[in-house]
Structures are given as C-alpha cells and as structure tokens.
C-alpha cells in the first residue's frame, strides 16, 4: 500500500535525523532515504509518515540558496537552505573584527545572500566609541543596510523586525555579540518550541542540534546555527574574493590583466581607485589580508 507523499519544511537537524514540520505545523522526526541529497534546515521536502511522529524524507526540493561548511574529508556539508539574508551581528563588546565582517560579506556576496549589518549593544556606546564606530562603518553604510539595536533596551528592535518580515534570515557573528539575546527578543516563545520538538521526538537530549529554524511572529523565518562556522573561505577563489568586495566590481573589468589580483600597481584599476580615494583603504587592506589567507592554488 503506498502512502501519499506530504510537503514539509526541515526545522531542525540532529545527528542523523531531521525534524520536519508539516503544513499544519506538526513536527515529525524523519530519516532521509539514501538516494536524496543530505537535507538541511530550511529545506522544502516531500516525505511520508512511517509511524506516529515519525517519517522519511523521499525528496529534497530544489534550493534557492545553500550555505555549506567543510565536513569530514573536506566534503561540504549543507547547513541552511533557502536563506534570503544574513544578519552580521557586531557589538562594541567584544571588540568587533572587521576582517571577520568582510569574510562574512564575501561569503554572502558569493551565495546570493543579502547581508545586513546589525550593531547590537548600542546602549554601551559612549561618545568616543560612537565616533570610532561611525568611522569604521562609513564604507559599509555606503554598501549595505546597517541597523543599530540593543537587545537589552529594545532600541531599534522594531526596525530589525521589519527587516526580517517575510524573509528567511540567519545570524552570523562572533561569540558574545548577543545573537541569542536578539533571538530571544525576536521570538519570545523560542524555548516552548524546543520543548515541543523534544516531546515529539520522545528523546530528552536534543541540545546538540546543528541548526534550528524558528517562525517569526510577524512572518518569516530565522535560522539559528549555534556554534557552526559556516562562513569560512573554503571554496572561495581570488575572483570570488574580489567579487565579494562589492565596491571593486565596477573597476575589475578595467584592470589590464584578466587574472589581476589587484595587488600590483601594473594596470590595476582597483588599486588606482584606492589611491584616488574611490575605494576605502581600510577595506582594500582587509581584502589583501583575506587574499593572503586563500589557498595558494585558487
Ligand atoms: N549591554 C548589553 N548587553 C547585551 C546586549 N545583548 C546581549 N548582551 C549581553 O551580552 C552577553 C552575550 O550575549 P549572548 O546573547 O549570549 O551572545 P551570543 O552572540 O549568543 O554568544 P554565543 O552564544 O557565545 O554565540 C550576555 O551577557 C548578554 O546579556 C545588549 O543589547 N546590551
Ligand atoms: Zn586589478
């Protein structure tokens, strides 16, 4: 007897299982058929129920976007599918690392993900720190939306909610910048949902999820990937790196050599733009640093 296939959304990933949400919002712990691509959070799937509360994924629908991380043996593992945007969170404390911000931006630019820069903990900004932040962020404000918020006081949270509405988003940022605090502010019933998942799967220890998807109260979804580094430069070559620096793009076709890495002066339109003040020197210096981190052969 064949069971009709159902549509679902992967909302969590545990070791070898996936939590699939059906159209009514009920959650089933599923395994995946061997022939399907390894599913990940955010995937739209076709699945069939096997037992109460359980099922198996038989098809992973085509993905709009896919974020991966290097797994065992250098193979890329999927982490989050169908994302629209990434919230790059920084804060006055711990001190922000703009090289890391640039790295996140390069990955976003090369995966068709829209980056938003979120400055959290603005309640901690005194005039001196405010001045430094403004100077540091000036080149970014010209390229990307920058939202200033405080998970502590609630400042700017309405604008953040508006930016997330009806989109699939994910946080990126150093430990301690306040990602969990923001998540709690945005999704007050978060813990209820985790409890609900554990109850459904009838197993106590599901704290080791690699990723989890939450529905935002005003529409849209937010994916949390605790402790998963998905924004490394693995798989990025020097062309993609330069492409990831948005403001370089108009100049790249004007470089004399097709394989210009924008390091040497000779006929490089990007360098010329830096010298003429059209491209931020700070950003260019960070580009050179990241270029130095790429594997030699790229
Ligand atoms: N002053 C202030 N402190 C905040 C704010 N948001 C978070 N914090 C504090 O910053 C610390 C780290 O916050 P978390 O939300 O745990 O940070 P995280 O980014 O999730 O950190 P990891 O879980 O390690 O990735 C906690 O002590 C929070 O109370 C804020 O807007 N203002
Ligand atoms: Zn060049």
UniProtKB/TrEMBL annotation:
GTP binds at residues 120-123, 173-181. Zn(2+) binds at residues 255, 260, 262, 268. PROSITE patterns: ENGC_GTPASE, G_CP. Keywords: Cytoplasm, GTP-binding, Hydrolase, Metal-binding, Nucleotide-binding, Ribosome biogenesis, RNA-binding, rRNA-binding, Zinc. Binds 1 zinc ion per subunit. Residues 81-229 form the EngC GTPase domain. Its cofactor is Zn(2+). Residues 64-231 form the CP-type G domain. Coiled coil: none annotated. InterPro entries: G_CP_dom (IPR030378), NA-bd_OB-fold (IPR012340), P-loop_NTPase (IPR027417), Ribosome_biogen_GTPase_RsgA (IPR004881), RsgA_GTPase_dom (IPR010914). One of its GO terms (molecular function) is metal ion binding. GO terms for cellular component: cytoplasm. GO terms for biological process: ribosomal small subunit biogenesis. Its main location: cytoplasm. It is found in: Cytoplasm. The keyword Cell inner membrane does not apply. Its EC number is 3.6.1.-. Belongs to the TRAFAC class YlqF/YawG GTPase family. RsgA subfamily. HAMAP family: GTPase_RsgA. PANTHER family: SMALL RIBOSOMAL SUBUNIT BIOGENESIS GTPASE RSGA (PTHR32120), SMALL RIBOSOMAL SUBUNIT BIOGENESIS GTPASE RSGA 1, MITOCHONDRIAL-RELATED (PTHR32120:SF11). Monomer. Associates with 30S ribosomal subunit, binds 16S rRNA. One of several proteins that assist in the late maturation steps of the functional core of the 30S ribosomal subunit. Helps release RbfA from mature subunits. May play a role in the assembly of ribosomal proteins into the subunit. Circularly permuted GTPase that catalyzes slow GTP hydrolysis, GTPase activity is stimulated by the 30S ribosomal subunit. This is Small ribosomal subunit biogenesis GTPase RsgA. It comes from Methylomarinovum caldicuralii.
């Amino acid at each position: 007897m064949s069971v009709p296939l159902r549509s679902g959304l992967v909302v969590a990933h545990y070791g070898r299982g996936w939590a699939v949400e059906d159209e009514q919002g009920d959650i089933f712990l599923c395994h995946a058929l061997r022939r399907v691509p390894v599913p990940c959070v955010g995937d739209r799937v076709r699945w069939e129920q096997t037992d109460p509360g359980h099922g198996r994924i038989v098809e992973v629908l085509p993905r709009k976007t896919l974020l991966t991380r290097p797994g065992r043996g250098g193979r890329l593992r999927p982490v989050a599918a169908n994302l629209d945007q990434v919230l790059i969170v920084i804060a006055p404390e711990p001190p922000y690392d703009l090289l890391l911000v640039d790295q996140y931006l390069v990955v976003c630019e090369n995966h068709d993900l829209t980056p938003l820069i979120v400055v959290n903990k603005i309640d901690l900004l005194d005039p001196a720190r405010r001045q430094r932040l403004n100077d540091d962020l000036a080149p970014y404000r010209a390229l990307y939306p920058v939202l200033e918020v405080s998970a502590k006081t609630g400042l700017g949270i309405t604008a953040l909610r508006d930016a997330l509405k009806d989109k699939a988003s994910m946080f990126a940022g150093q430990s301690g910048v306040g990602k969990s605090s923001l998540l709690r502010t945005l999704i007050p019933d978060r813990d209820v949902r985790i409890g609900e998942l554990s109850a459904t799967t009838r197993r106590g220890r599901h704290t080791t999820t690699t990723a989890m998807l939450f529905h935002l109260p005003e529409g849209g979804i937010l994916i949390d990937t605790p402790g998963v580094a998905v924004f490394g430069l693995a798989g990025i070559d020097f062309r993609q790196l330069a492409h990831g620096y948005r403001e370089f793009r108009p100049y790249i076709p004007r470089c004399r050599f097709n394989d210009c890495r924008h390091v040497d002066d000779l006929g490089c339109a990007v360098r010329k733009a830096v010298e003429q003040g059209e491209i931020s020197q700070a950003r260019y210096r960070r580009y050179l640093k990241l270029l130095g981190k790429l594997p030699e052969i790229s």
